[in-house]
Amino acid sequence: MPELEVKGKKLRLDEDGFLQDWEEWDEEVAKALAADDRFTGSKIELTEEHWKIIKFLREYFIKYGVAPPIRMLVKWCKQNVRPDCDLKYIYKLFPQGPAKDACRIAGLPKPTGCV
Fold first, then answer.
1. pTM score, two decimals?
2. Which of 16, 32, 68, 89 sits at a 20 to 30 Å CA gap from 44?
């Protein structure tokens, strides 16, 4: 099983790079997950827009126990990140998409149906 070392602590990941324990997440873990190209093929440099989406995903997950539906994420993004946000823009930020990249970097469990 893959691991990620952050601040001297080894975190267990599943075969797709998702944290095994979402409660071990913090912003340093997010930066390390974004920089780990074993699961994406390329590193993601986190911008303010990335962080807004990541924080929304975590808040939604903490409240409801699941990641938000993609339509809800796009609607939220239009209202809180930029008015022209659409799914294509979210894929620009997170090349493998909201389920695979955004949820992984946010430290959430792998969403149901995520390949």
1. 0.92
2. 68
